[in-house]
Each structure stands twice: as C-alpha cells, then as structure tokens.
C-alpha cells in the first residue's frame, strides 16, 4: 500500500506513467497487427505509417508532460491527436484498421484529465468520423450507415466499455492521489508533532537532571553557612531551567544585615536593585509572579519568604523563555524559601546543640567530679584544724583517704573527657561515614566499591570533614548516574601537610574540554569546585570516552580555614 501511495502521489510519476505505458504497448501491438495483416500496401508505406505514428506519440508525450497541469492545453492536444488517428485510418483500412484501437489513447487522456462529458463527446466524434471515412472510401455507396453500425456493433460496444473502464480507472487514481496527498500532509504533521514531543522530552529530561542535582544541592547546603553561595546556586538553576538570559535575587534580613543582591547581568544590577526596593512594599504579600519593565525589557519576579530572610527571585523574559505560566519560577521560589529556612534552622539547631552539650557537661561535672572536689576541699579544711591533735598513724590514714578521693575525682574527670573525645575512643567519624555511604551504594546499585582510607582525621576541622564527605557523595553519584559504572575506588590520604582525595570509576567517561566548559558544567561539579576552592584546594578531572573518569583533589592544611564570606 505504501508503494502504491508513493507511486500515485506524484502525477508525473504515477498516473502519467501508466498512461504512457499503455500508449507504448498499444502502439507496439497495433503496429505488429498492421505489419503482418492482409493488405496490399508496400513496406515503404507501412514503415512511413508506423514512423509517423511513433513521432506523433513522442510529441504528444512531451507536450503532455509539459502541460500536465493545464487542462485547456491538454484538451487541444487530445483533439489534435484524435484527428490525426482518424486520418491515419485512410491509408490503413478504415474501420477495419488495427489502429482503430489506438484511438483509445486520447480517450484515456481525456478520462484522466478532462471532464466525463468531453471524454464521451470525443469518443462519439471519433466513431462517427470513422464510420464516415469507411463508408466514403472503403465501402459501396449503397450500404447504409445503419448496416455498417450493425456489422461493427461489437467494436463500438467494446470501445464504449473500454471508455467506462478508463473513467473508473481515472476516478480511482484521482482518489488514491488525494489520499496519498492527505497521508503526506498527515505524515508531515506527525513529523512536526514528533519533533515537538522530542524537544519537550529533551527539555523534561534536562529539567529532571537539574532537579536531581538540585536535590543534592539542598542536602549540601543544609550543612553549610554561606547564603551568598546558596543564592548563586539558585540563580544558576533558575537560568538553566527557564532558559532565561538573566536572573537575579534580592534578599533582606531586616535591619540586622544590609540587603543581599546577586545578578548575572551586572550592568543592570544597580538599577534593578533600586527598582526592587521600591517594589517590595507593594508586592511582598503576593504569591503569584509579578511583571516589571526596565529599559524595554520585561522581567518576572516572585517573592521569597523565610523566618529570617525575605526578598525576590526573578528572571528576564526572552524568546526561549521556558516558563510562560510562572509555575517553574514559583517552584524555585518555594524551594529557595525552604533552603533559607533550613539554613536558619540549622544555625539555630547548632546553637541549641552547643548549649545542650555545655549544660550536659556542666551537669555531669557537677554531679560527680564537683562533689568529690568539694568533699576533698572540706576534708583538707577539717584536717588542717585537727592536724596537731591527731596521732601520726591516724593522720596518715586521713591523708590517704583524701588522696584516694582525689584519684577518684581524676578518674571521673578523665572518663567524662574520654566520652566526649572520639579520638580517645579510637573512633574515625569521617572514615566511618564514608565507608557506610559506600557500602549502601554498593548494595543498592550492584557495583563494586574499594576504599583506601589512611591518616589521622583528627587533624582536620569539622567543616573540612563534612566537605570531604559531600564531595565523595557527589563524585560517586555522578559515576553511577552519568557514567553507568560497575567499579568505584575511593582513596583518602591525610598527611601532616595536606589531604589527598581521589575517586576513580570505570564508567562511560566524557570529553573534559567540552563537558567542563563554563557553559556546560553541571551543578554538581560546580558545587564540588566551589567547595574545594573555598578551602584553597585544587580539583582535577581526567576522563576519556568509554575509559572511565578520575577525580583528584588536593587540599593543603595551610589554607584549610579559608571560607567564602557571605551574608
């Protein structure tokens, strides 16, 4: 069916091809019958007749191809050919000529391209002319036309039936042509729809990738204390998800801090900030996106609220804008509010934890060590008064008792210290957390994980420990999600001068020059780089397609305490 539709889709290669094919076969057959038929004409005349017919056939073919879309021209071509075929009957035997059947060629053309009335008028004219010629030149003048018609009724009946078949054939080919055109248009529409679906699917997959990275970023920032870095990351996500050329964020924490403003369009930063300050009182209670205009450019912004911070997150609208209804911007604003709230709660939680631990230590020292020290002081005071009254043996016993009490106080104090110190207990918190995470990764993703953890983790600060753990999580997550690896090796070596971390996988790999370009760098890798740079470290990616990836990180302890200053 597809081949038939394709064959009939183009008139010149479909219907016209069939018409020309019938013309060539009919010409060959009628010429053969004429050459080997019983007639007295010479071979030279026969050759001239067939040659003339061949030349006329090619002329008609060329004219028909050139004027296929011009019915008025085709009408004159058909009339001229019919007249020529009628005249051809004179030297070839009149109504008894084999070429009487060749007249079906102009009839077929008329049935295919012209009206039905014209087709039948053409056939009737041809039959009438052939009767007149036959009666005038080849029969006795006394024979009536009605007798000639009766004698050749089968011939005229066949010609009419063939004409009906031709008309049915023309109707069928026209319908098939229309169906083929309709199918072609529907195919084009389906292709356009498919392209739109593919584009939408690509955008959805890209958005899902960003959202997955966004989830990791939310977890990452729950343990960090830098709002400025948080805002920068949110703006990066906003630009990637909405395809906006510019994004901005304005936050204030009341009178305690100066407003924080961050924008990717530094030229408009001051003007935008002034406009946002003026707009804050009017739109701060609105929950839906608000539009503002600046220098002929349209911006869309939405409020962000948390316990401590309030402000805007906004974008510049463009032709490639991916968030026409503002739902994505609202989602990002809500997420930013959640991240700021978690940030604030984390600060409060850390303060409560410190106060609680201080109270616990104070209570523990008061209930045990403090009581023994008080008893020791009281005993010494009592012994001082009785020093001259007690005999030597009793004095020695009193001193021994006080010594034992002091030893017990020291043991209780040392016990409290050991309970507070993971180093004293021989625990390695960082290494334990890394091994626990990698064990879960190996079990859940059916991969092999090898660890090489060496050194004294107590010489590095808590923030660096937390950063190393987050980097290991991010690097292993990338190896699984993007690299589709089966084997991962994580090495952490801590020396007196530096920390060396490496994560090696056997996954798909990538081209570093393209993947690590500023415009193509992912959120996860960007977070890793920013975190490493905040500690004064260096990070290197080594990878090739289908040959895995290696991430090497070096952090010198001299720069360990460097931090990014934020709001």
Describe this structure in words.
This protein has 567 residues and is of the alpha+beta class. Helix content is 63%, strand content 12%. It is built from 16 helices and 10 strands. It has helices spanning 2-9, 15-35, 43-66, 71-92, 104-113, 116-137, 145-151, 153-221, 227-242, 269-283, 327-386, 392-420, 429-445, 462-481, 512-515, 523-534, and strands at 247-252, 260-263, 290-294, 297-305, 310-316, 448-454, 487-494, 498-505, 538-543, 549-556. The strands form 2 sheets. Strands 2-1-5-4-3 form a 5-stranded antiparallel sheet, with helices on both faces. It has a 5-stranded mixed sheet with strand order 6-7-8-10-9, covered by helices on one side. Helix 2 (15-35) runs antiparallel to helix 5, helix 4 packs parallel to helix 6 and helix 6 packs antiparallel against helix 8. The chain starts with a helix and ends in an 11-residue tail after the last strand.
């Amino acid at each position: 069916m597809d081949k038939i539709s394709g064959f009939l889709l183009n008139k010149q290669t479909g219907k016209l091809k069939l018409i020309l094919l019938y013309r060539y076969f009919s010409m060959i057959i009628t010429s053969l019958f004429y050459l080997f038929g019983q007639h007295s004409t010479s071979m030279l005349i026969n050759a001239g007749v067939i040659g003339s017919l061949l030349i006329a056939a090619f002329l008609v073919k060329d004219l028909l191809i050139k004027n296929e879309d011009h019915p008025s021209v085709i009408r004159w071509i058909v009339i001229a050919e019919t007249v020529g075929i009628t005249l051809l009957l004179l030297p070839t035997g009149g109504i008894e000529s084999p070429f009487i059947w060749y007249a079906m060629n102009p009839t077929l053309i008329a049935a295919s391209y012209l009206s039905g009335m014209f087709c039948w008028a053409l056939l009737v004219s041809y039959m009438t002319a052939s009767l007149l010629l036959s009666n005038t030149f080849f029969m006795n003048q006394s024979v009536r036309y009605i007798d000639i018609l009766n004698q050749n009724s089968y011939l005229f009946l066949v010609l009419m039936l063939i004409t009906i078949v031709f008309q049915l054939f023309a109707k069928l080919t026209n319908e098939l042509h229309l169906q083929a055109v309709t199918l072609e248009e529907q195919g084009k529409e389906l292709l356009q729809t498919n392209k739109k679906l593919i584009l939408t699917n690509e955008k959805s997959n890209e958005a899902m990738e960003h959202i997955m990275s966004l989830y990791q970023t939310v977890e990452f920032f729950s343990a960090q204390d830098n709002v400025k870095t948080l805002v920068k990351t949110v703006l990066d996500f906003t630009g990637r998800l909405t395809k906006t050329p510019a994004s901005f964020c304005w936050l204030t924490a009341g009178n305690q801090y100066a407003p924080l403003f961050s924008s990717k369009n530094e030229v408009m930063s001051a003007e935008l900030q002034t406009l946002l300050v003026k707009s804050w009182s009017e739109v701060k209670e609105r929950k839906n996106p608000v539009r503002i205009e600046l220098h002929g450019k349209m911006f869309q912004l939405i409020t962000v609220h948390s316990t401590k911070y309030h402000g805007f997150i906004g974008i510049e609208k463009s032709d490639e804008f991916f968030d026409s209804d503002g739902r994505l911007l609202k989602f990002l604003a809500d997420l930013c509010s959640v991240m700021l709230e978690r940030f604030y709660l984390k600060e409060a939680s850390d303060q409560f934890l410190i106060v609680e631990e201080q109270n616990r230590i104070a209570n523990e020292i008061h209930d045990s060590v403090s009581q023994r020290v008080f008893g020791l002081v009281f005993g010494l005071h009592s012994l001082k008064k009785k020093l001259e009254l007690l005999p030597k043996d009793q004095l020695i016993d009193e001193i021994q008792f006080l010594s034992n009490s002091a030893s017990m106080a020291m043991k209780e104090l040392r016990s409290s210290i050991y309970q507070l110190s993971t180093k004293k207990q021989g625990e390695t918190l960082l290494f334990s957390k890394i091994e626990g995470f990698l064990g879960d990764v190996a079990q859940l993703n059916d991969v092999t994980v090898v660890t090489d953890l060496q050194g004294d983790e107590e010489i590095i600060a808590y923030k660096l420990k937390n950063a190393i753990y987050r980097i290991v999580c991010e690097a292993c997550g990338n190896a699984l999600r993007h690299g589709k690896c089966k084997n991962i090796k994580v090495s952490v070596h801590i020396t007196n001068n530096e920390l060396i971390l490496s994560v090696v996988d056997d996954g798909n790999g990538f081209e570093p020059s393209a993947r690590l370009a500023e415009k193509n760098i992912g959120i996860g890798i960007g977070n890793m780089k920013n975190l490493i740079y905040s500690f004064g470290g260096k990070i290197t990616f080594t990878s090739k397609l289908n040959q895995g990836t290696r991430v090497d990180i070096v952090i010198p302890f001299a720069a360990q305490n460097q931090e990014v200053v934020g709001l």
